[in-house]
Amino acid sequence: MTTAIDILWASPWLLCIGLVLFVVAPALVAIEQTAPYSFKPYRWPSKIWSVDEIPNLTGKVALVTGANGGIGVETCVELVRNGAQVFMGCRSEEKFQKARNTIDKLLDERGPARDNRKKGQVLYFECDVSSLALAKKAATVFLAHPQAKRLDVAYFCAGAPSTWGARPLSEDGIDLIMATNCTNQLAMLDELYPLIKKTSRHSASSCRIIFISSNTEFWANLRWPLGVEPTFNSWKDVNDPRRSENARYAQSKLAQALLARKLSSDLSNENIACLALHPGEIDNDFVHRMLPWTQYNRYLAAIIKAILIDSRQGALTGLFAATAKEVDEKRLSGQFLTYPATIIQPSAFARNDVLGRKAWELQMDLIQGRNLPRC
Ligand SMILES: NC(=O)c1ccc[n+]([C@@H]2O[C@H](COP(=O)([O-])OP(=O)(O)OC[C@H]3O[C@@H](n4cnc5c(N)ncnc54)[C@H](OP(=O)(O)O)[C@@H]3O)[C@@H](O)[C@H]2O)c1
Ligand SMILES: *[C@@H]1O[C@H](CO)[C@@H](O)[C@H](O)[C@H]1NC(C)=O
Ligand SMILES: *[C@@H]1O[C@H](CO)[C@@H](O)[C@H](O)[C@H]1NC(C)=O
């Protein structure tokens, strides 16, 4: 029933991409190169919500995975600037130090936040989510930290580098993209729940669980001959070799969207909000890795720069989800957000609660050691 709609949905997008590539982008590049200032219509600040509206986060604790990445660093800057203690999950202390230097520089540049509130601090914990064991270890390391007495925001932003054509499995025998993007971070969350629940019971505003998904979740809907529809019936299905790398990426992002919806409904009696979101199309390492030719061609790099948003804006929607009081006032838990801090309706699959339960059960069984994948 949804097949025809899904494909129709896809074609206006293809049309838009064509228009952008062949008409809008060259025009913007021309303007970009002649204008005395950076002219980027898409970068106009959001009127909907801005980081100046972040509430006082003094006393709150946040945990961020993939914290040294493009979106991660910008997110940490604003959380710290508004008073939070931010545990930055990075794969090595060296990466953390480098990110911390950038954060200090940005904090100096931006100055204090609204009403001169005191800034918080960044802390390091080692966090690699490429296997279940490592992800669980990361949660344990965090929980053992003497300053991890509460957890107000769990922000899952880590993303594996593109595997271009190859389709590696994680140590646990599941598609590596699915593992890093979703399952292993759910394993972390599973360990963190007790602390989040405890925190939420003594907190006026809700605790937040945030998954950085992507609007590419939509592509996971495509059925044969365009795609292989996800069922989450088994790991064999998730790992299906007929799924291209992009389709696997989409599948993992769909799983995150489903997860946010499922957890939100499971946690509806708790003071905890859970959201998934698309951060926007961002000009950072992430995109450059996906489109390696941008590194070699100045012209193409300029097109990308002209039409995409930067990491600072890419962090906006996640910061809204993680801190804004509107999330409680408007009961946004379980919704899917997109740049700039706007609610949108995700694909029909991402709204399918039966599929959501299957995806959740499949992953939780693995996390709790009940069904090991056979490959
Ligand atoms: N950029 C976009 O246009 C866009 C669009 C939609 C969605 N997203 C999503 O936004 C998220 C953040 O992207 P970004 O733009 O900030 O990209 P990025 O700069 O590449 O950041 C990715 C982060 O994830 C970390 N990471 C990768 N593999 C990991 C692992 N196995 N364990 C722990 N950490 C790992 C990286 O750490 P290392 O430095 O150690 O590799 C890095 O800190 C991603 O989940 C991506 O899917 C981005
Ligand atoms: C922020 O909150 C803390 C703790 O509740 C409080 O001590 C501080 O005065 C607040 N700062 C501002 C500027 O309101
Ligand atoms: C998901 O996997 C893709 C491909 O490996 C990667 O590019 C992306 O950053 C990952 N996203 C997340 C949230 O882990």
UniProtKB/TrEMBL annotation:
Pfam families given in the database record: adh_short
Family, per entry: Belongs to the short-chain dehydrogenases/reductases (SDR) family.
Organism superkingdom: Eukaryota
InterPro entries documented for this protein: NAD(P)-bd_dom_sf, SDR_fam
Keywords (A to Z) from UniProt: Membrane, NADP, Oxidoreductase, Transmembrane, Transmembrane helix
Single GO term (MF): oxidoreductase activity
Record field: transmembrane: 12-31
Name recorded for this polypeptide: NAD(P)-binding protein
Keyword Glycosyltransferase: no
